[in-house]
Amino acid sequence: MILLPAMLQFAGKYLRMVLKVKKIITVEHKRSGIWQDTDITYAQVPGWLGKATMDLKLTILRPFEEQSHPLPVILWFCGGGWMAVDNNIHLPNLVDFVRAGFIIASVDYRNSNQAVWPAQLEDAKAAVRYLKAHADHYQIDVNKIAVMGESAGGHLASMTAVTNGLRNFDVGEYLTQTSNIQAAVSWYGVVDPLSAKNNSKTADFDFVYRNLLGAEPEESPELDAEANPLTFITSKTVPFLILHGTEDKVVPLADDEKLYQALTDKGVPADLYEVKGAAHMDEVFMQPQITDIIIDFLKKHLK
């Protein structure tokens, strides 16, 4: 029993030594870190009844280490029925594109309470011009620019793409730059506002088209046509990837089928993926299988 205190003391000392042993490991460098550059003002537009100035923002995600060469960029436009815009809401879901070698520029644009169409298109094009003007700073390849968006943002991506070369929508700064892009990806995007209103399986969102145009689409065919990508498609339109769920009750799948047909009729490279069982703004569109489809499409067409 006399030895017990000494034994306990020894055991405690040994235990403390074990706990203090350093762990040395070798870590394989498999991927780059990611920069996030937030609250970048890309344009200033009229605010508060035209009496003030409002900043339009974008956020950029880009690889931390890969700064030796320019990279392709994807401009992302979130959805929200042109009523609510949060350009940062999907950033966590867009990281996979950065991991695949793209820069993400998630773009704020005016909602329909702030300005009616085509203000949203003017904003999108202003963002393209800003990024081109600052390409060296953000390591952007100005010849590899894609636009992508969901729902109302999908409509904006489509409209940005089909109006390549139409300078009447270029308003604001950096007008020495063009707003031309090289590829478009639309997730269940609105095509024709009138058709979307008339053929939706729900009337809950009929008001968003009036708010966007400043008039009912059925009463304003010229305004409706100006916000319809079908109006602008030519044989020179850039390649399109279209994604749409078969159970979408908000935006008619048939409208995207019509967009796909119009593109292919003009000889434009286009792919349409109808996602079985997917609803509007379904989480399935954030799954790796969809991400891989988009990445493969962009790598094929952004050459």
UniProtKB/TrEMBL annotation:
**One Pfam family recorded for the sequence:** BD-FAE
Q: Which SUPFAM superfamilies match?
A: alpha/beta-Hydrolases
Any GO molecular function: hydrolase activity
Record bears the keyword Chaperone? no
Sorted alphabetically, the keyword list is: Hydrolase
Which ranges carry the BD-FAE-like domain? 66-263
Q: Record's PANTHER family?
A: AB HYDROLASE SUPERFAMILY PROTEIN C4A8.06C, ALPHA_BETA HYDROLASE
Protein's name in the database:
Hydrolase, alpha beta domain protein
Species of origin reads: Liquorilactobacillus oeni DSM 19972
